[in-house]
Amino acid sequence: MLERVAGAPGLARRLRLALLPGWERVALRGTPYPTLRRRLGVLTPGAVLRPDPVAFARLTAYEGAEYRLVPVRVARLRQAGGGASTPLWARAWVAPAWRAGAPG
Question: Which of 5, 40, 58, 101 fits 29 for a cystine, CB–CB 3.0-4.6 Å?
Answer without folding.
Answer: 101
